[in-house]
Amino acid sequence: MTILKAIVLGVIQGLTEFLPVSSSGHLAVAQQLLKVPENRILFFTVMLHIGTLFSIFFVYSKDIAMIIVEFLRLIGEAVAGKGFKVNNKHRKLGIFIIIATIPTGLMGILLGDIFESFFSSILIIGIALLITGALLWLAEKLNPGKRDILDMHWLDATIVGIFQGLAITPGLSRSGSTIAGSLFRGFNKELATKFSFLVSIPAILGAAVLEFKSVLKFGIGDISMGTTIAGVLAAFISGLFAIRTLVNLIKKEKLHYFSFYTWAVGLIVIIVSLSQL
């Protein structure tokens, strides 16, 4: 793989991981267009996910640090017999991220083979893109957006986690699904966006671990370290751009703009799929 191809794939990963347009669907198409065999870039794909994680850590570093500190304090207080007091927003965020990760993880483990089979169906990817567009449109148009982190309940986190689990389907955007799920639960726009990105951390890490098992099977391939670093940097920088862009668009109530894109791409994919029958 050339450095240029690595940068292109890195940019696509960074943008589509966080913009609500489905990273899995876009990467699958890009790999075919660039003629890059999937089993030869598994290690590279894992590293691209790590690059996008860095962008989340960079943007939400203060929140992540406070979540870790407050979670450790919570455990320390519980061990010391002072009770289990979830009495501030960062403790709540930490607990709810864990709660949301449970249904996502269970769906990935129990339904992973089903979701994996969807990658071979262009028609399913097209339909999933249409669903992504519908979720984005409805979430923004119907949601009053007033609830804050202190108003969250365990059921809210569970539902967002289910939305994230469903987004394992190629063509169904993870960020779009979790943001839509949060908005459907009445979260304000800032919380819906922040929670979507924070809850993606264990999901992306989990996906990277699962992909690494395949790396052990097929090997790291013949991609040089320099080429890999170029791809990771591209994913990191484009991920930063995507996060900040999405935050601004949600604030301006323009999330539904992505609906037009996913609907257009979804229809094209479906037409191409049906033409091949």
Word description of this protein:
There is one protein chain. This protein is mostly helical and 277 residues long. The protein has one domain (3-275). 77% of the residues lie in helices and 0% in strands. It is built from twelve helices and no strands. The protein has helices spanning 3-18, 23-33, 42-59, 61-79, 89-110, 112-118, 122-142, 154-166, 174-184, 189-218, 225-251, 257-275. Helix 1 packs across helix 3 (42-59). 43% of the residues are buried.
Structure keywords:
277 residues, mainly alpha, 77% helix
Q: What's the helical proportion of residues?
A: over 70%
Give the SSE string: HHHHHHHHHHHH
Shape: globular
- What is the distance, rounded to the nearest whole angstrom, between the alpha carbons of the first and last residues? 32 Å
The count of helical stretches stands at: 12
Query: What is the makeup of the main sheet?
Result: none
Q: Indicate the mean pLDDT.
A: 86
Give the total of beta strands: 0
What portion of the residues fall into strands of 2 or more residues?
A: under 5%
Number of domains: 1
Low-confidence stretches: none
Task: Specify Rg, calculated over alpha carbons.
Answer: 19 Å
SS-based class: mainly alpha
